Amino acid sequence: MQHHNTWRKRLQHLLQRAFNFSCLLCYQPSATTVCHWCENDLFFFDNTTYGENLLSCGLVSRHVKHCHYDALSVLGIYTGSLAHLVQKLKFSHSLAAGRILANWFYTKRIQSTKQLPQILLPVPIHPTRLFSRHYNQATVLADDIGTLANISVEQYWAIRIGRKTQHHLNRSDRATNAKSAFSLSTRGLDKRIASSNITCVAIVDDIITTGVTVNHLAQKLKKRYPQLTIYVWAMAFTPPPKSALLNE
Fold first, then answer.
1. Exposure string for 175-189, b = 16+ CB within 10 A, e = fewer
2. Are residues 9 and 75 in the same domain?
3. Do 194 and 112 fall within a single domain?
4. pLDDT tens digit string along 73-124?
5. pTM attached to this predicted model
């Protein structure tokens, strides 16, 4: 009898734990971080339709500054549920949201890619913001993607100097701010590139809007390491208000 009661308590405990899992988006009971109903409702950039390199897709490339990097891969559009997940990672300390975004990016965008970068470079945030937030969301994403794709991460490759955030600025102000906001670290990639024959890297960020930040960082990289092929990987793209992508 006592043995039976013990197993019943264990079963009740397991059931209670199971039903404590809920979808990050609809909050209904779910065995996965995001339930399959919510995932099926999301828009992702399909490689077959839009291509692996979104710089070849006019709906994206004509709105993004990209003269210093070679390829762009984005998971989806910064709207609705995808925007909610990015915001949960960025402002609500939801590392689970970061893991699901990284997993989707890997499985839906780069798992079948033939040439992957050798190092991931998360876009840095200002030390004051890092102190208040306790982590850089781009580093969280890069670490999770790097684990899935077996790619190393170099988080100290660049330093953010300016404290202005890009999302409060218009296009021209973003470009001006980006020019003075970053500098390459003196202890960053020099030794790794020289010793490991690095030829391809990917800059990782959560959101890309005008592309001026990643383009400026790529410009600095190309100036110091002209042999590099540079990709940009982002979780979401913010299209202009009248973009046809918003109807997808």
1. bebbeebbebeeebb
2. no
3. yes
4. 999 999 999 999 999 999 999 999 999 999 999 999 999 988 999 999 999 9
5. 0.86
